[in-house]
Design a protein that fits this description.
The chain is α+β, with helices and mostly antiparallel strands. The protein is 48% helix and 21% strand. The protein is extended, with a radius of gyration of 34 Å.
Length: 429
C-alpha cells in the first residue's frame, strides 16, 4: 500500500490518491475466496471443494473484489494519510475506485477526500477583557418578584359593571371566516383569552376591549404575511365573536398574611423580602457566572485564525439538529409549523450555533497545546468513570464507545478554559 498524491480542494480539505499493490490484493482475494468457498454448494462437488475457476465463472469475481477491498481499505487509508502528512479531523468521504483497471495484475488505485485538522492560531488569551451583568439585587428586583407572586396568588372575580379592558380574562366563542367560509383552526367555544396578552393575531384583542358580556360582534383582522399557515398568510378575515363573561384578577394585599401564604418559612413581609433577596442573589450569581463563561469563550474565539474545513461545521450542525429533535420528540416539520419558522431559517440558526461551538473548541485546544496540557492516566480514567456513572452504563462500554483521544481533548479544553477565565478581566455592567 502506498500514498500517491494529494490535492487541496478546499480549506483544510484534501483529495488523496493511493494504491494497493497487486500482490497484496491477490493475497486478500485468496483469503476472501477461501472464506466464501465454505459457504458455497455447487452441484457435483462436496462443500468447499469446488475449483476456483468454476466458482468465479459461476459467481463472477466482483463478489470477491468487494470482500477483499473492504478488508484492505481501512489500513490503506490510514497508511496513505500518514505518508501524506494529513491528520484527519473527520472520517474520509467520497471514496472512488475506478472500475476500468486491471486490479489483479496492477493492484487497485483509489481516491478519497478528507477534512484535515486545521492549523489555527489564537491571539493573546491572557488578560481577556469581558463585560458581564452585575449580580447586585435592587429594591426594584424585589418589588418585581413580589408583584409576580401577587399575580400568582390572585383570585379571579367576575366583572359585570364595566366593559372589557386589558388584563381581563374574556370567555368567548369565535368563528373565523375567510371569504365567507369557515377555515380550519378558526373556531372555538368557551375559550379563555387574557386581553392584552398578544395571544391572538394583532388587532383581535383590541377589538374585544370595550365590549360587554353578552355582546356578539365581528372582529376584522389580517393575518401576518409570515403566518405559518400559507392559506391564511396576509389574508383579511372576519371573526364572529360572542363574549360570554369577563373575569379580572383581584390581587392580594402585601401584608404578613400574604407572606405566610407564600411560604412556610416567612412570618412577616420583611421575612419575605429577605428570602426573595437571597434567592435573587443566588440566581443572579449563577447567571453572571454563565455570562462570564460565555463571554470569555466568545472573546477567545474572536481571536482564532486559520482555515477550518466546512465539513466540520456541517457535521456539528447535523449533530445539533439530531440532538434537538431527539430532545423535543417530534418531527422537524411539525416543530417548524408550531413556531412559524421555515426550514432555511432554522438551519441557519443551528449552523450559527454550531459554527460558534467549533471555533470555541478549536481555540481552547490551541490554548491547551500552547500551554502543554496533557492529562494524566488517572485523570483520563476518572473521566471515563464519571461518564459511566452519569449514563448508568458499564465502564467497559463507555471505553468502547468513546476514544481516549476524545477524553483527552475534553479534559484539555476544560483546563484551557479555566486558565483563560482565571486570567480574564471582568467588568460588571
Amino acid at each position: 500500500m502506498s500514498f500517491v498524491s494529494k490535492e487541496k480542494t478546499a480549506p483544510a480539505t484534501w483529495k488523496v490518491s493511493a494504491h494497493i499493490g497487486a500482490e497484496e490484493f491477490r493475497k486478500q482475494l485468496d483469503i476472501a475466496f477461501a472464506r466464501e468457498l465454505k459457504k458455497l454448494a455447487l452441484p457435483g462437488f462436496r462443500p468447499g471443494k469446488a475449483p476456483r475457476s468454476l466458482v468465479e465463472k459461476r459467481m463472477g469475481d466482483k463478489f470477491l473484489f468487494d470482500e477483499a477491498i473492504d478488508a484492505l481499505l481501512p489500513d490503506a487509508i490510514s497508511a496513505a494519510l500518514k505518508e501524506a502528512g494529513v491528520e484527519p479531523q473527520l472520517r474520509p468521504e467520497d471514496l472512488d475506485i475506478p472500475k476500468d483497471q486491471d486490479w489483479k495484475a496492477n493492484g487497485v488505485d483509489f481516491t478519497f477526500t478528507v477534512a484535515a485538522k486545521p492549523e489555527v492560531t489564537v491571539g493573546d488569551y491572557k488578560g481577556i477583557e469581558v463585560e458581564v451583568p452585575a449580580a447586585a439585587v435592587t429594591d426594584a428586583d424585589i418589588d418585581a418578584r413580589i408583584h409576580e407572586l401577587r399575580h400568582r396568588n390572585a383570585r379571579q372575580v367576575e366583572v359585570e359593571s364595566r366593559p372589557a379592558q386589558n388584563g381581563d380574562i374574556a370567555l368567548i366563542d369565535f368563528r373565523g371566516l375567510l371569504d365567507g367560509e369557515a377555515f380550519e383552526g378558526g373556531t372555538a367555544q368557551n375559550h379563555e383569552l387574557t386581553l392584552g396578552s398578544g395571544q391572538f393575531i394583532p388587532g383581535f384583542e383590541e377589538q374585544v376591549v370595550g365590549r360587554a358580556p353578552g355582546e356578539s360582534f365581528e372582529v376584522n383582522v389580517t393575518f401576518p404575511e409570515e403566518y405559518h399557515a400559507e392559506a391564511l398568510a396576509g389574508k383579511p378575515v372576519v371573526f364572529e365573536v360572542t363574549l360570554h363573561e369577563l373575569k379580572a384578577e383581584e390581587l392580594p394585599e402585601v401584608d404578613d398574611d400574604f407572606a405566610q401564604e407564600v411560604g412556610e418559612d416567612y412570618n412577616t413581609v420583611e421575612d419575605l423580602k429577605a428570602g426573595i433577596a437571597k434567592e435573587l442573589a443566588e440566581s443572579k450569581a449563577r447567571e453572571a457566572g454563565e455570562a462570564f463563561d460565555h463571554a470569555v469563550q466568545d472573546k477567545l474565539a474572536e481571536t482564532l485564525e486559520g482555515e477550518i474545513p466546512a465539513a466540520m461545521f456541517d457535521k456539528r450542525t447535523q449533530q445539533n439538529i439530531d440532538m434537538f429533535l431527539e430532545r423535543i420528540q417530534m418531527p422537524l416539520e411539525r416543530y417548524l409549523e408550531l413556531i412559524g419558522e421555515d426550514g432555511a431559517a432554522f438551519e441557519e440558526r443551528m449552523r450559527a450555533q454550531s459554527t460558534a461551538q467549533v471555533r470555541i473548541e478549536l481555540a481552547l485546544e490551541k490554548v491547551a497545546a500552547l500551554e502543554g496540557f496533557e492529562p494524566s492516566d488517572d485523570e483520563v480514567e476518572a473521566e471515563y468513570a464519571r461518564l459511566a456513572e452519569q449514563y448508568k452504563v458499564q465502564l467497559s462500554r463507555v471505553k468502547a464507545a468513546v476514544p481516549k483521544e476524545d477524553i483527552v481533548n475534553d479534559l484539555n479544553r476544560v483546563k484551557a478554559l479555566e486558565l483563560v477565565k482565571a486570567q480574564a478581566v471582568k467588568k460588571e455592567v
